[in-house]
Every structure is written in C-alpha cells, then in structure tokens.
Amino acid sequence: MTHPNDIVLSMHADAALPAAEAATVSLHLEGCTICAAKVAVAQGETRIIAAAFAADAGEALPELSIPTFTRPAGLREFALANLATALLIWMAGFLWKTLFGELVVNAAELAASAYAPDTYDLVSASITHYLEEGTSMFSTYVGFVCFAVTAVALVLWGIRHRKGGQLASLGIAAVLCAGVVVSEPASALDVRYDKTLVTIAADETVDDTLLIAAETVFVRGNVTGDLLVVGRRIEIDGNVEGNVVAFAESVTVRGSVGGSLLSAAERVELREATTGSDLWAAAETVSIDMASRVEGNAALAGEKTLVAGYVGKDLYAMAETVELDGSLGASLEALANRVRLLDGAHVGGDARLRIDSDAKLYRADGAQVDGGIEFLAKPDTAKRKNRYTDLEFYLWQLARLVSAVLVGICLLWLFPAWRSLSISSGIEGLKSAGIGLAALVGLPLLALVVAFTLVGLPFSFFAIVAWLLVLYVAKILVGVFVGRSLLARTDYADSSFLILLVGIALVILVVNLPWVGGLLGFLMTIVGMGVMVQWLLGVVPRATYTER
After folding, report:
1. Quick one: which H or E segment has residue 523?
2. Cα(521)–Cα(398) distance, rounded to whole angstroms?
3. pTM for this predicted structure
4. How many domains does the chain fold into?
5. What are phi and psi of 91, to 5 degrees?
6. Most exposed of 49, 210, 283, 485 (fewest Cβ within 10 Å)?
C-alpha cells in the first residue's frame, strides 16, 4: 500500500486538493488508520489556528481541547521504569521455576540436614490439607505474580509523578494487563491430589513438574521435570529426570532420579535405585542396598543409617549407628555413637569419625580405607576465638562499609527525599521505634499466615524479600541521618558520599561494640524501619494532596 505524503494529507485536511485527488485520498483513508490519524491531527491544528484568528477578530472562542505539556521523564524515572519492566519480564518467565525448583530444593536440603524426628508428620498433614483446599488456584499462579509486580510498578510510577488521585485507575489497569498479557500456565505445574491413592501408571509420561499429595502414592511412569510428593506411603519405581522431594512415613525408591533426592520420613529405602546427583535423607532408618547408586554426595541423618551400595562422592552421616558395607568414591564423615565398617566397605578417601572413643568403631578385616582414619572430638561449647584479634573480621567490616555506601548512593539517587528524613527524639522517636518494631515482627508473621494458602506463596516470598531489604536499608537510613548531623556545619554537608561514609562507618562501629553492640544495633534497626514505614505511608497522601 502506497501512503500519501504528509503534504498531501495536510492539504486534504484543509480541503485544498482538487476534487479528483481528494476523492482518491478519501478512499485511501477509509482503509488506512495511520493516514486517517494524521489527517485528524492536522484538522485539529487547523481548528486551533482558526479559533485563534476568531479570538483576535473578537468572535466567541469555541471550546477546544488543547493538549497539555508533559514534562519529559528524567534519568531517574527512566531507570525506575526500565527496572520495573525488566523485573516484570523476569518474574513472568522464571520466578515460578525458581520457587518450585531451586527454592524448594534448597529449602528441603536445609530442612533435611537439620531434621527433627516426627516433623515429617506435621509437614505431610499440613501440605496435604492445603493442597486439598488450594489446588484450583495453581492455574493462575503466574498471573498473580505478574499482577503483583505490575501493580507495584504502576503505583510507584504514580507516586513518583505525583499522580496520587489516579492510583485506583492504575490498579484497574494492572488487573487488565495481567489478565490479558499472562496466559494460563496450562502445563506449568501438574497437580494430582486424592485422599487415598494417586498412581502414575507405567505407560504415563508427565512432561513437567509434578506435585502429588495422597495417602498412598505410586510413581511407576516417567516425569520429565521435578517431583514433589507428600503422603503416608510413597513408592517411586519409574524414572524422574529432575529432582525428587518427598515427605512421608515410608519412602521407597526403586527407579532412577536424574537430579537430587531429598526426603524426610520414618523410613527411607533405596532398592536398586540410582540418583544422578545428591541424596539428602532424614529418617529413623535410612538404607541403601547393594544394587543402588548415588552419583553425588549422600547426607544422611537418623537413628540408623545403612549404606551397602555405591556413593560417588562423600558420605555425611549423623546417626546413632552408621553402618557401611558399600563403596564410597571419596571420604566418610560420621557423627555417631557407633560406626561399623563391614567386609564390603571401601572408603576412597579419609574416614573422619566423631565418636566418643576408638572402641565405638568396628572395622571388619575386609574393610578398606584408602586414606587415613581420623578420630575427631564431638562438638563442644568451647570458648570461641576473640573476633577482635582476627584480621578477617576487619576485612569483612570493610566490605560491609563499602557495599553499604554503594547501596546508599543508589538509594539517595533514586529517592532524594531520603536526604532530608529526620529521626526525632522524645515521643516521636518512640513512635518511630514502635512502628519499626511492629514492621520487624509483623511482616514475617504476615508472610507466614499468607503462606498457608498455596496462592499466597509468591506473596510470602515477596514479603520476606522486602523484609530482608528493609532490615538492610534501615541501618543505612540511620547512617544518612548520623552523617548529615555530623557534617551539617562543615564544607561537606552536601556530599552524599561523605555523609554515607561517615554515618555508616559510625553505625558499623557501634553495632560491633562488645556487650552493647547487639542492643544498639537492634534499636537502630527498628528506628530506621519506623522512619521508612512512616515515609512510605506519608508519600501517597502527600502526592494526592499535591495533585489536588
């Protein structure tokens, strides 16, 4: 399609074209919205000019809608807009994988390494209950995440541009945007729930992450993603290409796991099973039979651990009795009352044993240890070395100072109003401290309550991240106030760098004082949080008032 040039369109708007050419352009405008828009703009300009001449001639001025001038966005607003956009894209594409992949696996690994007996029952019952109540909400999981990020970004934009009266409209726009842009994640997460039995048949293949909750679970098919399973009795005979996280009374694995296997139960058994990475298991009894292989590390905790199979790397065991009748590719680390190395035992590295005495070790004639056997003392409550005599302590404090100053410079650039925030004394100071204490305690509790619904997981994640960020920024804010107060009557009163350097250095010095440093650090944290919360609560009313 050939478009008329701008001169022809302008002449057409002024009715200055010959009749034949005007008819041709009119026919083109019926099918071209781009050119029609240009003609409409030109006609509007013509009306404004005509109105100006009419006003000069003393005629009545018609009511016109003249576009208002909009101040171009500055570098700070541009940076905020790009940051919000990048965050939105990242959240939409990858956050659910982070939450249900790395985050769940890492959290489960930590829980397994610090397992307390009988907690599996509470976890199993709780997750089963909330899966029963909330599985229907998983289909809109990504949509909720994107909606939250979009709404926060738009509200921050409204605050920055003093558009407090339009925040409701922005919220509605965020809802529409999230509903239109974000499609339903049809295959993002496969959830199976039943009160009694869930079975993945041998001929069935699940192409993504699978979440199962039931009294009894049989996995005999293939799962190409991760497997998260909760129940009483779990048996995995199929092939899982990703990681497996399992909570139950009894967990039995006879198939293959491509990633890590993490489990907490009364009994965890590997029978002719293989794992492509690590095994983390916490149970009263953990057993690995002769035909099983763990290609990575094995970290086992419980009353009794029995390892007759192959572990490719290190074996870490914490139990009443540690029994090894298999082969280790690397070292053995054991914290136990008794360690038994049977005839089939082969340790490729060293054996470091934390037991009460040498008599607690049984070593059969056929047991092989390629390295040495070292007996270590069990952890005690010996007095720690004085940190003030350690060079590493001062290097860490210097690193804290540098990083806090850099973060502070960015914060003052993004939020210039923070330079003038003050920390009051007397009743106002107590008020700020009280608000900060409420935020310090209330935000994690709110995140915990929201987490009890599956749809609340992303919001709980955001709340915890925000809480950690506020904890970190609170002392920086106090440092700004301290540095500004100290340099107020000097030639450096306007230097953000020196204000941050002096103020944060003094804050770090105070929090590291012996005896009172912890208390003073706590007080500075809650005061800084209180001032920050008051500023956040006050910025919206101020923006609304300014708009009016």
Report:
1. helix 517-547
2. 17
3. 0.45
4. 3
5. -60, -45
6. 49
